[in-house]
Amino acid sequence: MKYVRLVILSMTMIFLSCSKEEESVQMLETFEKEKVITNRSKGGNKVPPIGTPYSLIEEENMMYMTSYLIGLTLLQDQAARDYFYQELTGKQQKISLRTLLNGTNNPFETAFSGRYMLYNWYTDPKGEPTPPISSAIPDPLERAYDVLHMGYYTYYLSIHNDYDWDIHVPNKHILFSYFNFNQYLNHKQYIINLWDMDTGLYDDGLKMSDTDKFFIPSTFDYAQELNDILILTLRNAGTYSI
Fold it and tell me: How many other β-carbons are positioned within 10 Å of the β-carbon of residue 123?
């Protein structure tokens, strides 16, 4: 009788252990699916690899949004273009985003913050911002997409305290072969904005003009575009050398 009880107890423990393990696996699968759905709903076309820390996904979403707003600022505001051109003059192939968003009477920061407000709608901060892109059309004002739920000041502090991003300009010689940024845009019309999570693979980005904005295709030829269109890549500072 004692032996029978031991057998029953052992089988019960094994059953409970298996059930608990199955429940854990199901919870993990659900969590991974939710991460993928969240990333897609925020405009990311890529599915993050299993095991990617969620903080990296958040940073990549911030890069999507920031790259888009940098492009809008340069395409739509002449004072911002002049300031960018001046700040990049005499420097190597990168400029700190913190530098561009610093200082009083900074025309780039003024124009950038104004465009941020177009997407923020003056809402109270409710969490991480939703990038202003979709799987098809980058500009949320053209479709009924979500707004940015982080106030500009909170976003500004995130740029200064949490992220250390540079705007890498690998082919700045194309821009500086023109007298100014306006002259470049009059001739080329487009700029290409990429974001890079230190993978070295440029498969996320936008090709933008004042009237036309679209995602780079899967057949994007970085080397070819490097010879023709000004490329701006948002990157984490200190992870590459120039």
Answer: 11
Burial class (CB in 10 A: 0-12, 13-18, 19+), 207: buried
- At residue 44 the predicted structure's pLDDT band, cuts being 50, 70 and 90, is very low
Whole-angstrom distance, CA of residue 156 vs CA of residue 170 = 26
Q: How far apart are CA 126 and CA 219, in angstroms?
A: 37
Q: Which residues of 58-79 are buried (b: 16+ CB within 10 A; e: fewer)?
A: bbbbbbbbbbbbbbbbbbebee
d(CA 132, CA 71): 12
What confidence tier does 36 reach under pLDDT thresholds 50, 70, 90?
A: very low
d(CA 214, CA 138): 6
What percentage of the chain carries pLDDT values higher than 90?
Answer: 31
Task: Read off the pTM.
Answer: 0.71
Contacts of 174 (CB under 8 A, 6+ apart): 184, 188, 228, 229, 230
Q: Residue 168 in contact with residue 200, Cβ under 8 Å? A: no
Determine the straight-line distance between the first and last CA of the chain, rounded to whole angstroms. 78
